[in-house]
Sequence to fold (197 residues):
Amino acid sequence: MTPTDELRQLWQSDISEAINQRELLQELQRRSRNLDRMNRRRDLRNIVAMLVVIVVYSWFAVRAGNTLERVADVWLVACGVWFIFYVRRYARISRKPVPEQTLGAYRQALVGRYDSQIRLAKGVKYWFILPMWLGLLLYDIAYRVNGGKNIKFALVVIVITAGSAFAWWLDEGPGVRYLERKRRELAVLVGEEGVAK
Fold:
């Protein structure tokens, strides 16, 4: 092979590699935007729901017939406030990667964001579902203490427990599986075995 042929191959391989890296960066940026969009929509839905909880249970607290009811109402309001605070704080911590960094650093930052969302989904049972379940249970106990019927008390306990279990399953089942699948797709895209879990 002549020196001219070697230079031509080197030049063509550099151009090909640059084009591949540019396309890879564009795909990573697209995936980052999709993750941001999904997170914003989920957070917005949940925050609106918690604002409704805060308003409704604040109103209930003002009109509560006894202290136990008022404590349950305030607890549920606090759960709503805590949820909004926690989700907003987590969103600030999990900022999208800066595209001006190296391709490897950008790739790792995006993988880290998926890991962060997986941790958030797996931990929701502790920082939200359990406290909310306790507040609803306390509310039901207040109903029973005020002379409520045993059958209604038992049915409410069953419903709130089943609802909480379903929310837990949604987050740790399909929710986590979806994020893990997206993370694996990212690993395949960048061709790194170490990225896939």
Notes: Residues 3-190 form one domain. The chain has one domain: 3-190. Helices lie at 3-62, 67-93, 103-145, 150-190.
